[in-house]
Amino acid sequence: MPSANGAPTLKPALTYADLVDLALPAELVTRAEIRRATRLKPEQAPDVPAGKARLYVEAVTTALLVGPDLGESIRFLADVPLDAKGRVPKLTRTQVLVLARTVAGRPGELQLVAGDAMLPWSADTETRLRSVLTALLAPDAPARVLSLREALHVPGNLAGEGETQLFFATEGERPIALSILRRPGEPTRWGVSFSEIVDQAATPPAHDTLAWYRLACSLPQSLSERANISATANDRRIATEDYALVLADLGPCTRNRPGAH
Q1: Residue 218 CB partners (closer than 8 Å, separation 6+)
Q2: Exposed (0-12), middle (13-18) or buried (19+): which is 47, by Cβ within 10 Å?
Q3: Which of 25-39, 42-56, 120-134, 145-159 has the lowest mean pLDDT?
Q4: Looking at the predicted structure, is the pLDDT value of residue 201 above 70?
Q5: Which of 68, 125, 190, 199 is buried most deeply by CB count within 10 Å?
Q6: Using only C-alpha atoms, what is the Rg of the chain?
Q7: What is the dihedral of CA 22, 27, 31, 32, to 10 degrees?
Q8: Angle at Cα 241 formed by Cα 166 and Cα 207, nearest 5°?
Q9: Do the Cβ atoms of 96 and 31 come closer than 8 Å?
Q10: Helices (H), 76-192
Q11: Mean pLDDT computed over 90-105
């Protein structure tokens, strides 16, 4: 069913992780109005997913969210879902959000970062996307987690007291560490630090933030024996339990884009 501005609605709605996945490789993000959309012949788009059509889209930019100014006119290929009758929805004069890369030597020509990276415009989607772009462009933006390097639990002086620290290998070797604290008679609490110092006062990242995405969408689903360098079997068991607590608190990295993992 078309949205309020006539563009096809994506169902289910894009999640925060979906938007970050699309924004990360984008060189340019713009709002545009479609002036013409021409369907490619099957032989011109043999790899188009079932239930979709590949279109050659000609549009004019109405707002540049991020990236170089290419002028008013832009052109690109996009895959769009067919309607219930197997037809291409009417897109002329509709507003869309485009996440793309520029094409060297071809002014105004873009390559979408994914076949579905032309999004139906809505005020809510643009606001959410702007928030993602702001977070990604921040000087202190959390780095991408490459692997869990070490996990270490150290018991305290009292029974039931202790701290587990998790250290990660990241893109650009920027620090990310987690601290999980156990105190007798208190709930276990944890936090994340994006500095060289593991701060015991750190807190978990809020859901649907870039810090949350870096953890929830990158951490392995279990703590490997190799990474768990705690001294005793009991300490290693506690470190494993603390890691599971972190994963449970983060929750799933939900993605609704077809083919997303």
Answers
A1: 144, 145
A2: exposed
A3: 42-56
A4: yes
A5: 190
A6: 23
A7: -110
A8: 65
A9: yes
A10: 123-137
A11: 95
Q: d(Cα 174, Cα 140) in Å, to the nearest integer?
A: 10
Bridge partner list, 152: 165
Residue the block writes with tokens 């810090």:
211
> Using CB atoms within 10 A of its CB, is residue 46 exposed (0-12), middle (13-18) or buried (19+)?
exposed
Tell the residue number behind the tokens 């540049």, with chain if given.
64
Residue 248's H or E segment, with its range, is helix 233-250
**What are the tokens at 63?**
């707002």
Q: Which two tokens stand for residue 183?
A: 């105190």
H/E element, 21: helix 16-23
Q: What is the DSSP letter of 228?
A: B
pLDDT at position 27 over 50: yes
Name beta bridge partners: 151.
166, 228
Nearest to 16 by CA among 154, 162, 151, 125: 125
pTM of the model: 0.88
SS3 96: strand
Binned at pLDDT 50, 70 and 90, residue 202 comes out as confident
Given a cut of 50, whether residue 3 has pLDDT beyond it is no
| CB distance 2 to 243 below 8 Å | no
Tokens of 172: 């650009």
Q: Among 185, 177, 183, which Cα is nearest to 163's?
A: 183
Residues 140-163: tens digit of each pLDDT: 999 999 999 999 999 999 988 999
